[in-house]
Amino acid sequence: MNPESEIEVWRTQWKETGRCQSVDAHNFRIDHNRQRWWLRLHYFFGLAFAALLICYAAFVLRSDFRAEVLAWAVVVWITTLVVTGFSVWNWRGLLGVSGRSVREYADAYERRSMAMLRAIRFGYWFLGLQLSITAPWITIDFLRHQTTVRQYVTGMGFLCALSVAFVAWFGRSRRKAVRELNQVEELRQGLGTEDYQESTGTI
Fold this sequence. Notes:
mainly alpha
């Protein structure tokens, strides 16, 4: 789904669920700054975790150099680089964006919320990819008698629980992003189209 279609989706949801509470400029600035700092923390934590994961895979491979471990390490490296590359692309130019006018704050807020929606869509796709790799891998190991029934059930149970947790987190994050986009729409409507387009005053 392209950005224009995504905007139409949340606008439709906003109209169906009713208008949110009135958003004044001062509170909007506070929410904007809170969103910016949270995204910075999330972004840099993600980069640090990616570096740690790559090093961990290299350490495991060095300790137990086998064909299966090598294949696992390669999968870890490739998927980690793909996720990191998407993160860098998705949040490019948005972490330090701020503004002084109402329009600049609203535009930056909206762009970050749209980037979050892209990240959630990517997260669903990546989760599906990981499940399509991990579940058969665990099953094949079990069928080859390389794991016990208890280990297999534990592994699959953990995989299911982790998947449910991610889906719940994606859903919560998406609702939050839609709510933030609603706040932008509410602020713009409160200002009025003409005032919003010509506004150069500080919040």
